[in-house]
Specification:
mainly alpha, Urease accessory protein UreF, 2 domains, 11 helices, elongated, membrane
Length: 285
């Protein structure tokens, strides 16, 4: 009998020890599984953050390509068909030397900054149909000569047509263009169209305004080269020199509303208005 009791006691003791060991192993296994799940969650979170960062980087990179395309001379908007009054100023003997040319470019850039940048800025910060339509109407009433008005409409129409065909990921561009053409109540002036396109593609307002100043400077210097006022190398040097002044003019006139739009060089505007009276001319304006 005592042997049986001892055997039963030893048996139960062994079972209890086994249960304790099992519970300890189960607890350890639970800790290991918890750690594994935590590591998996961390990896998922890191992966999500990495994917978001990569997506953001990709978006920024694509935006840079779009920025460059909008200011590229290969974009068929008709900018090189216009001299911004330089041809008329040359025939009127206002510009006859490289020194005169530099002064003319600076005054034209200031005129652009004071008169047109407010329309670019307003359209870029509110790229919707109603704002664009209103800005277009205001600018049409603001421009004082028929030559600059026609040039603005011509380039703006071309830019809107090209943008709606190129940037197919923004269907609102094509919708706005088609609606405007069907209604016939929009003139497609260049400055509001440029701001609208820049705003819709995601360009910030300051870059948009700087780009508009750049294409203005680019078109004048290109016209000067074809008018034999300056050679290709001299044009490149001149563009670099004027860029410092252009930056200061941008700081002076950027981020203004259309109620502050004004002419700073009315003489240049008058000269451009005489372009249609030239007997022989190379440019449209």
């Amino acid at each position: 009998m005592p042997k049986t009791v001892r055997f039963i006691g030893a048996f139960f003791s062994t079972i209890v020890d086994a249960i304790i060991i099992f519970l300890l192993l189960l607890s350890r296994l639970n800790l290991i599984l918890s750690a594994c799940f935590a590591m998996m969650e961390d990896k998922v979170e890191v992966k999500d953050v990495t994917e978001q960062f990569s997506s953001s980087q990709q978006s920024d990179s694509l935006l840079q390509w779009t920025n460059w395309q909008l200011i590229d001379s290969i974009l068929p908007t008709g900018g090189f068909a216009h001299s911004l009054g330089l041809e008329a100023a040359m025939q009127a003997r206002i510009v006859s030397h490289p020194e005169d040319l530099q002064s003319y470019i600076i005054h034209t850039l200031e005129n652009t900054g004071s008169l047109l940048l407010p329309f670019v800025y307003s359209a870029a910060t509110s790229p919707d149909f109603q704002t664009w339509q209103q800005l277009d109407m205001i600018l049409d009433a603001t421009l004082t000569n028929e030559v600059s008005r026609k040039a603005s409409v011509s380039q703006g129409s071309a830019l809107m047509r090209v943008s709606s065909s190129v940037f197919t990921e923004i269907p609102s561009l094509k919708m706005m263009r088609n609606l405007s053409l069907s209604n016939g109540d929009v003139h497609f002036h260049h400055a509001p169209v440029f701001g609208l396109v820049c705003g819709l593609v995601g360009m910030d307002s300051e870059t948009c305004q700087k780009a508009y100043m750049f294409i203005t400077m680019r078109d004048i210097i290109s016209a000067a080269t074809r008018l034999n006022l300056v050679g290709p190398l001299g044009a490149a040097v001149l563009q670099h020199q004027v860029s410092f002044v252009a930056e200061e003019l941008l700081k002076k006139w950027k981020n203004r509303g259309v109620d502050e739009a004004c002419q700073t060089s009315p003489l240049l505007d008058t000269v451009q208005g005489c372009h249609s009276y030239l007997f022989s001319r190379l440019f449209c304006s």
